[in-house]
Fold this sequence. Notes:
Layout: H1 13-16, E1 24-30, E2 33-39, E3 45-52, E4 57-65, E5 76-77, H2 79-94, H3 106-120, H4 124-139, H5 149-161, H6 184-210, H7 218-221, H8 239-248, H9 251-263, H10 267-271, E6 278-279, E7 284-287, E8 296-299, H11 302-312, H12 336-346, H13 355-367, H14 372-379, H15 384-395, H16 397-403, H17 413-422
Parallel strand pairs: 4-5
Antiparallel strand pairs: 1-2, 2-3, 3-4, 6-7, 7-8
Amino acid sequence: MARSQRSGKLETRTARLKLPQGKSEFLTIGKGLALGYRRTEGEYGTWQARAWDGSRYHYQNLGRADDFQDANGEGVLDFYQAQGAARTMYEEILSGGTPRQKDVTVQQAADRYLEWFREHRKGVKMAESAVRAHISPTLGDRRLADLTTVDLRAWLDKLATKAARLRSSKLSKKLNLRPAAETKDQKRARRASANRILSVLKAILNRAFQDGLVADDSAWRKVKPFAKVDEARIRYLTDAEATRLVNACPPDLRRLVRAALLTGTRWGEITSLKAADVNLSTGHLYIAESKSGRSRHVPLNPEGVEHFKALVTGKTGDELVLTRADGKPWGHNHHIRALQAACKIAKVKPAVSFHELRHTYASHLAQAGVDLLTISKLLGHADTRITAKHYAHLADKTLAMAVTKLPAFTASPKQRDNIRAVR
């Protein structure tokens, strides 16, 4: 048995985590054979073997490093186990064979990723929708090892020019599509949507790479998202629009819309809220798990306390606070048509989505002088960057005060009389 090599840079997880992200570190462990380690932006580094057969190099991804998880000798390897796996691969080459390749497709990788996502993250529906509508139809049958940067860039460019999809009946044989993007803002929005789908694809492929299902991740690492396309104007309701909208909603939707306006909670947070999560004595809602995976407490103003007091009266702790008129839970799309109809009745143009009720909550706080850190905590953002991106212009009172120093650029009535007299 070949003797295992030692390395101050690769032997321990502490040393490995000091290496720069995105750069491979190779250690020669035999003639024509090297063990590589590469740490990506995710949680895990990856072991890789590089072998020379006399005419060309062979590369194979061996599995994850035991940076944050104990080695098990299979999917997660320590430094010495990785050397053994690299030598096994090299022996196959020297015996005239080829290194073991996993014939995994994009669809298979997506299925594995979604299974993991459901267990460890929130908001899986967006990822499932992106896979079903945009990734599986065009890339699903492609082998991970066959993906190229050119092909992926062409896929992204085509996504950005395709018409946006609208809801269609499950029985419909034809997709319901929006008109093709024509204005500058419509084209920007399509590129922004393409970027979000690219993020899902990269997450799928990066996890496959970390799990050792493909030996190289350079094909998709080189594909960059469209730049400067996330500068959408935030739509929020004025006080008058919000009041008209609440009054125009049917009773079950009215309770839901008003709750969203008073709390700034996301759809999934407010529709899954239970009576036990409402503390009327302290005036707080408890959000057990938000999009970021963290819990938080949302304080209520006096109107909010009264609204939720009416909602939870007579309910046991495990009952939902907000349900539809028939007592059933709100599903993902149950509100859409009713909200659009209410916007039409209330003369709210353009019509708002449910998420824009959250923007309304945050925008009114910003205009009232509430600092961005506080707004970020109330919204449950992971940090203030996303808060500042959307609401900094509303919170900056310095700019508003600065323009008050400008002159009127018009003459007073007395000055206008003098001008006429001179003429």
